[in-house]
């Protein structure tokens, strides 16, 4: 049964992957399932989904939009209820998907005191270069954790990242998209006026199909580029600061923000030129 639950969570993860990236969506880990076992088992709809996955059937039967019918069971004798419209079907499924996301995305909590986490990040920042001021490294780490916690309250974070993104886009939450986190983290760190550290902005997934941009701020030793720095990303775990060396991030291939913007401008210009050529009459080269 544990394997079936894992398969269902993996199915949900695969279907939703690409909205914000693998680290940004759901991670169907066994540790996450251990903390969410009662939630999953308590929902009949999820149990039906688990049985469907275990039987090799990917998801519910397709919706017949033209006929205005929603979910129909595979046993006609059981279809005694009136037809359900597609919108009512989606309205019913959204809360279930939301709970599935929170269940599958659960990760073990880091129970260490905040001071220990700050000390670990400070040591990593100081190790970026021999000229990094230990006091600045400690201050950068302390401010990073404090700002992540502050923004969690300001953004009113109560859900996993995907769901919070949806609420922001619907106007139900003030801020909390990945670039909001990156911008507000960078602005706060910049106020410290570090002399031995540099801040960088980076973007991932910009040119990957079915993926959306993800933004972050990176801290490096003075004069180094972002690839020699440390990613400071509170978004991916819903306000809990994730940090790691830029080149060791398993979920994202980071690129400098200005380079991404330049490539996007070039692509748009090429697309405009291509569209203009479609309507331009061909020029004959024959005498």
Description:
The chain has 287 residues and is of the alpha+beta class. The chain has 2 domains: 2-104, no CATH class; 114-261, no CATH class. Helices cover 47% and strands 9% of the residues. It has 9 helices and 5 strands, in the order H-H-H-H-H-H-H-H-E-E-E-E-E-H. The chain has helices at 2-16, 30-41, 44-54, 86-104, 114-126, 134-154, 161-169, 178-190, 257-278, and strands spanning 197-204, 214-221, 230-233, 242-245, 255-256. A 5-stranded antiparallel beta sheet has the order 4-3-2-1-5. Helix 1 packs across helix 4 and helix 6 (134-154) crosses helix 8 (178-190). Residues 11-43, 58-84 and 99-106 have low confidence and may be disordered.
Structural class: alpha+beta
**How many helical elements?**
9
Poorly predicted spans: 11-43, 58-84, 99-106
Question: Approximately how much helix is present in the residues?
Answer: 40-55%
The count of strands amounts to 5
Q: Reading side by side through the largest sheet, how are the strands ordered?
A: 4-3-2-1-5
Arithmetic mean of pLDDT: 74
Helix-strand pattern, N to C? Answer: HHHHHHHHEEEEEH
Q: How many angstroms separate the termini?
A: 78 Å
